[in-house]
Amino acid sequence: MSETVQSAGPLAGLTVLDLSRVLAGPWSSQMLGDLGANVIKVEQPGQGDDTRRWGPPFLEDGSNDAAYYLCTNRNKQSIAINMAEPEGAALIRKLAAQADIVLENFRVGGLVKYGLDYDSLRAICPDVIYCSITGFGQDGPYKDRGGYDFLIQGMSGLMSVTGHPDGEPGGGPTKVGVPISDLVTGLYATISILAALNHRNATGEGQYIDCALLDGQVALLVNQASNYLNGGMIPRRLGNAHPNTVPYQDFSCADGDVLVALGNDRQFRAFCALIGRDDLAGDPRFASNGGRSTHRGVLIPAMQETIAAWQSADLITAMEKAKLPGGKVNEIPEILADPQIAHRGLVHDMQRSDGTPVKVIGFPGKLSRTPATYRKAPPRCGEDTAAVLGEALGLDEAEIARLMAAGIIADSL
Q1: pTM of the predicted structure, to 2 decimals
Q2: Which domains does the chain have, with CATH numbers?
Q3: The pLDDT of residue 1
């Protein structure tokens, strides 16, 4: 493999036409861009992606783009085209004819009137890989509903197992602190696109991919769903405790909380020895994980009483020496300044086209031969319109000026 290909990324040479906005779609296209694909993000003139306004905080660089937008739009070129105008839709179709992948998250059937649906684009580009992301999928009784992360977290059952139990202070269903339903659907979309690319490489065939937020989040119920499907156990909220593994939760020390995550019987016995509670390790009720889970109502209070006398740093240090999994609950500034994160190079400094600095969280996979690259900071809306239309479609300056004057396209907001 040449050094050129290595530096460009494993998806170098592929073009993604990104018609999506907000998070699930842009999250997927950003990953494809990190891995080397050329991503062209199509935005609405005068408005752009909704997340550009989802603040504060905002960048103070004239664009007033929100920090939210910055987290999911690097390694993309932004072009502003009004697809509601026939000339605008025609320009997008010409770009789609040159693309390997088209990604969109409009409502079901929403792109048919613009000739930008899968059937229309397949007619001009038979090997295109076309991925649609919606709340509930392209069929079924909910297909015409709008889908938002918070709604999906509740409908999927996720919130029924997240938060403190009913009857406890703060009890009740709780959403996850990040838009997990959007993010996991973006991941599934990327995985599906890569699978479709491999199929196309083998057969020459493109295909249609239908990804739904609800489907993705239900798939992410993993052990909780399996507990019900295969054991008849209806999962409930347990706070920070685990439904299957005990002890696997937070404990209060004299000066703060620690996380204790013991995954097997050996680790449990070693932890009991560490805190001076061999009596717990020797109790036949707690000898196996199944017994500890059944009798957690007795075991956990006994552990809480002993752990409460420890200083958190002392307990974490002792667990590290004993090679037992434990740690603290970090706040966001703490983890982003953590030496492990610094060593792994996860935070990257980038510059927008005008020199404005932007920090981003990088792609977490470490590819030894074709690593992710950080080539272009999240762009202003439409800043690449003229360049892309000139290079990709051969439009000259006069034609670009005419289209701008007619409101068909726009440059930077």
Answers
A1: 0.92
A2: 3-220+341-410 (3.40.50.10540), 248-331 (3.30.1540.10)
A3: 32
